[in-house]
TrEMBL record:
It comes from Symbiodinium necroappetens. It is found in: Membrane. It is a multi-pass membrane protein. This is Uncharacterized protein. It comes from the Eukaryota.
Length: 405
């Protein structure tokens, strides 16, 4: 009796989400979820439905913006400004610090709707933050490079630096990157929450396919970013190999990310399909989350991700300069190998959603992690001990490390 009354109240309060291309589908993602959705007409994600274009552009832009971070560090921070390795590692850690608050942001998005919506306002607000941060970087520009530039466009590394204070310019860049990543955190948490709701509304035998497809969209965005970095931001001033006159400058490069963030934010204003939600008690929400975490399966998964995050972030500050100095890696080579890594991720995602939706995630992660770690250790140690120092041999890491992801 109580259950029937609860379902009736929920149905009266909820506003249904109807696909433009499938008017028979009547699913309220915010209130009922998959378990109470009409099993006769389960949700199917449609790329041609304008109501889904917002989340598609969000996923693509997330991959595009995050994919340019390595080129930014290698070309601008290490190459142009000649910042020390320990500071570069600190920049990487600071830029990823907002990810620590993903759970907190997810709780806020779940329990505190804005104008009646749990996802859309957070998506828009996050992308506005990223747009602002990249726009500020484009306006600021860069000082003169650390080293003097010769007639051929290469740095004169054997001479005294022309601008020895250039390596101090990383501070405003770090602030802007930190702000941009906070924006990615806000929009990303809301986007992942929306994808989970889509997955819950799918038929059981297809559950998780929408998430995988949208993850592949993000990888396509990352692939696009690597193409831009490899063939458009490969000037000699930024640790590249081509004439700087025919390559993007710093202002042009970061402006591309500002435009991509702006397009994603604007698309999320109207083209995100979600129902209307209401406030949820934070105390009740946290208590339910804790009750869920007490289950053996969820606790095991949480422990796995906790330990994996610790081990995955163990780095040495020398790794960046081992790659650049000992292995002789340039920007184009790094981006090309990263492109192969994205292809590996796309292939893995396709295989996962096609054949392995019901395969144990423990077996998948165990085999992928152990195999790829062993494959990565060989070129790394051979480079460190000076046995084989080749750019493409060393950069196999960017390919094999993408497979477990």
């Amino acid at each position: 009796m109580a259950t029937d009354k609860t379902c009736t109240c929920v149905e009266e309060r909820a506003k249904a989400v109807t696909s433009q291309d499938s008017p028979s589908i009547d699913v309220d993602f915010m209130e009922k979820g998959a378990l109470e959705a009409n099993s006769a007409t389960p949700f199917e994600f449609n790329f041609y439905d304008r109501g889904n274009w917002g989340i598609i552009l969000h996923c693509w832009s997330s991959g595009f913006v995050s994919g340019g971070f390595s080129a930014f560090l290698m070309g601008v921070v290490a190459g142009y400004l000649n910042v020390n390795a320990d500071i570069i590692r600190g920049l990487q850690n600071m830029s990823s610090l907002p990810n620590v608050f993903s759970i907190l942001m997810g709780i806020v998005s779940d329990s505190r709707p804005i104008f009646g919506y749990r996802r859309r306002p957070y998506l828009v607000f996050g992308w506005i933050m990223s747009t602002t941060a990249y726009s500020v970087m484009a306006v600021m520009g860069l000082p003169e490079p650390y080293f003097c530039v010769g007639p051929d466009g290469d740095y004169l590394l054997d001479q005294e630096p022309c601008n020895p204070d250039a390596d101090q310019y990383y501070v405003p860049l770090m602030i802007c990157l930190f702000t941009a990543n906070i924006g990615l955190l806000v929009s990303g948490s809301a986007g992942r929450g929306l994808m989970v709701e889509y997955a819950r509304a799918e038929a059981e035998e297809r559950r998780g396919r929408t998430q995988t497809v949208l993850s592949m969209v993000g990888l396509v965005g990352q692939f696009s970013s690597l193409l831009v970095a490899g063939f458009g931001f490969n000037g000699r001033l930024f640790n590249g190999t081509w004439d700087q006159r025919y390559q993007l400058g710093f202002r042009q490069y970061v402006s591309i990310f500002a435009v991509a963030s702006l397009i994603a934010g604007l698309s999320c204003i109207r083209h995100v399909r979600e129902g209307v939600g209401s406030d949820v008690s934070l105390r009740k929400y946290c208590w339910q989350a804790w009750s869920l975490f007490e289950s053996k399966a969820v606790a095991a998964a949480g422990l796995y991700f906790f330990v994996r995050a610790i081990l995955a972030k163990v780095f040495t500050t020398a790794s960046f300069w081992v790659m650049m100095e000992w292995a002789g890696v340039k920007s184009l080579q790094m981006q090309l190998c990263s492109l192969l890594g994205v292809f590996a991720s796309l292939l893995g995602s396709w295989l996962l959603q096609k054949y392995m939706l019901n395969v144990s995630w423990r077996k998948i992660m165990l085999v992928a992690t152990v195999t790829c770690t062993a494959m990565d250790a060989l070129p790394t140690f051979l480079t460190i001990f000076g046995i084989v120092r080749d750019q493409y041999f060393y950069l196999g890491e960017s390919i094999v490390s993408a497979i477990p992801e």
